[in-house]
Amino acid sequence: MASSSGRRLATQLVIALGGILVVAFLLGSFAQSAEITEAPDFGGAYVEGLAGFPQSINPVLASDDASNTLVSLLFDGLTRTDPQGQVIPNLAETWDIAPDARQYTFHLRDGVRWHDGTLFSADDVIFTYGVLRDPAYSGPYGAQWRDVNVEKLDRLTVRLSLPKDSFAPFLEFTTVGILPSHILGTVGVRDLPAHRFNIQPVGTGPYKLKELTPDRITLEANTSHTPSPWLSRIIFRIYPNYKTILTALERDEVEGAPLVEPGDVVRLQRRKDVTIYDAPENTVTMLFMNTANPVLSDRLVRQAITSAIDRGRVIELARNGHARRADGPILPSSWAYDPNVRRLEYNLLRARALLDEAGWTADPAGGPGRQKEGNPLRLVVLTNDRPERLAVAGEVQRQLVTIGIDVEVQATGAGGLVQDFLLPRKFELAVYSWDFNGFDPDPYSLWHSTQVAPAGLNISGFSNRKSDEALERGRRSLDRMERLKAYAEFQAIFAEEVPALPLYLPTYEYAISTKIRGVRTGIVANPPDRFRNVTDWFAKTRREIATRGS
């Protein structure tokens, strides 16, 4: 009996030991094939400075940076842009474009709710675009929408029809935020600017308004949003301007500054708890040349000016190196940019030879200037009174003198520069920045001959039949390859005719605490674009076990 019990006990011990060995083997194998990683977790807050109190937290009325920043977090459009500026779905899941490229049918996402819980539908889209089309609407989008026909096909389908020709940039117009018709549907367009909605907004965006006071605005996560944000709160503290925000960052009153000027980057780089993000701006600073001017109507003179300017030196002096050299009228970040187009290179020997060829000869008395038929070669560079612009104009002056052009710099206020000199084309050379209207590369409004100022924005007065035809094809076609070909042709003509010299592409710098992770930069058309991937930002993490790949 005792012998039988002993055998059973021994057997049990063997089985138990075997089990332990198996478990140990499995745990060892798992340990070798697994690792503990950190993953984003919900929670935490981000505190940023806001320059000025928002004037209207309404997507169809917002015009100041503070309002547009809040709009970007509280509202969604049918579409949005990705970091490269490409249009992607948002409130619309998909869309169809008719063969004639004049009708767009949008299929809306089902189950989307406004921040107050009401279901989103086509009625909200119809109402919003109706506001934009109303003759009484005086906001920033009226010209884009005035003639667009809007139809509701069913609860989740709308159709937009263009009045005349196809227009490739149109899809980007649908990024404007949608308004709630159940709140504003009975409000007249003229009454919208004074409505309490503008300080008590209700949207469908990733964040919703929790509190608004004169010095602080608190947003909380909209957890039903797709995708849902990780940060539970974003808090904005109100300051008079960007400079005071920078001081607040240094005092640890805030964790982020929405704009860091080039001259302030170095001092912030010394901080280990702040990351400075550098993003390409959707703008280009140029030296515009008035082609109606007797001197500048000669292409050889324009080419000489182009060859005489060292843009690298201009960037260092004007922006402390915080810009990229511009090589054409289309941004290098755009799919339409042609990297093979002839570059406008700095070459003093070529610049002097071109002026000689144009008949502007060196002063026979040995002076520094040039003359033609007894007339001295003199030009005026006009700009506004901003320090950056004055630095650019001064460096242009210094460099052109080296090839014999006598240059005078004149400055005026920013508003006066455009209205009193650029649009009436009362200038010779002008340093001015062109902000692209969105991310589509269409440069029609700046370079087509029908847009010559003062009726349009073609302040150089550039007129070239082949260039016009290329620009027309580029904005009519929705075929990417056809547009690429058209814009490559335009860029080649521009490089030869040089109605303006693209100087540099400013970079947009902003600062965020290193505790906030997941931030990704992309092309910035407006300061709120820094929040483009805000749903990926996180401050808290959780541990996860992941299996290594074999």
Describe this structure in words.
The strands form 6 sheets. Strands 12, 13, 14, 15, 19, 20, 21 and 22 form an 8-stranded mixed β-sheet that branches. Strands 2-11-10-9 form a 4-stranded mixed β-sheet. The chain has 550 residues and is α+β, with helices and mostly antiparallel strands. The protein contains 16 helices and 23 strands. Strand 19, helix 12 (387-401) and strand 20 (406-412) form a beta-alpha-beta unit. 30% of the residues lie in helices and 24% in strands. The chain has helices at 2-33, 65-74, 122-133, 142-145, 170-173, 181-184, 242-250, 265-269, 299-308, 311-319, 348-357, 387-401, 414-422, 444-447, 465-476, 480-497, and strands spanning 34-41, 45-51, 79-81, 87-89, 92-97, 103-108, 149-154, 157-161, 207-213, 216-221, 233-239, 256-257, 274-280, 283-289, 323-325, 361-362, 370-372, 375-376, 378-384, 406-412, 429-435, 500-513, 540-547. The protein is globular and about 80 Å long.
Mean pLDDT: 93
Radius of gyration: 30 Å
Shape summary: globular
Estimate the strand proportion.
Answer: 15-25%
How many helices?
16
Q: Main β-sheet, in a few words? A: 8 strands, mixed
The proportion of residues forming helix, as a percent range, comes to: 25-40%
Coarse structural class:
alpha+beta
Total beta-strand segments: 23
* Poorly predicted regions: none
End-to-end separation in angstroms reads: 53 Å
